[in-house]
Design brief:
By secondary structure, the chain is an alpha/beta fold. The protein folds into 2 domains: about 90 residues, Rossmann fold (3-Layer(aba) Sandwich), CATH 3.40.50; about 180 residues, 3-Layer(aba) Sandwich (Rossmann fold), CATH 3.40.50.1260. A 5-stranded parallel beta sheet has the order 4-3-8-9-10, sandwiched between helices. A 3-stranded antiparallel beta sheet has the order 6-5-7. Strands 1-2 form a two-stranded parallel sheet. α9 links the parallel β9 and β10.
Length: about 290
Amino acid sequence: MCSHLGRPKTYEDRAKYSMEPVRERLRELLSDDRVIVLENTRFDPRETKNDESYARELANGCDLYVNDAFGSAHRAHASTEAVAHLLPAYAGLLLERELEMLGRLLAPDLERPFALISGGAKVQDKLGVLERLGSRADDVLVGGKMAEQIRDANPLSFPVTLPVDVVAASELSEDAETEVAPYDDLPEGWLGLDIGPQTRERFQERIARARTVFWNGPMGVFEWPRFAEGTRAVAEAVAGNREAFTVVGGADSIRALTEIRLVDDIDWASTGGGASLELLEGRELPGVAAIPAA
């Protein structure tokens, strides 16, 4: 078994990003000493260069290759792409399931209404997905920092539903002075750190009537409890819609669901952040393309 952990850049990073804790946990779960866990593949600089010599070292002595790391399938690395050309290659059960469940969002016969909810701070990473899925959606609900960019200059080819009010803060601080303000009329110098109560209600109503839902990205700085109500409201609405097919992607969105113990009420919580977005955007994933009939 091989994988990577983090983005080690220096020799000192090796202690921080070692696979040793993973090996120990797998030993507990499997009760099997016959499983060999390799050290972090990114400790070797040839990994991220998709170096064939490194791939040959990984393949040496093995009979077949199984990729079950969907979260890394968008990376053309030695352990995700090059090695798949050296051995009989197969998709793992998780990888297959990710492709199946995310693929349902792209199906021509998806059940409507289709609600797309997007937020978070990584605006540029999500514009491609918004354009592709949003053009098919019946409701596109946008919060977080992304809403600010779209309000100032909508780069999309369709209208979206933006917040009508926000929880504004006098500064970017967990203890800042706050007030609810109209989205387009914040006090001078203040910041919108969460969607407001009117927006929460509006978004919840749209989500409740949907029959297909995809959510990626929090509605504000949810890491701070005072600015987490918007994200919590969306999480509860998505999890509470038992008649819809619901998919959630992105570490922050899944973290929010996990913290309020609702992740089990979602049809599919995707393990791939960038991989999920690239797949839904319509881009080829190198780790998938290298596997025959994946």
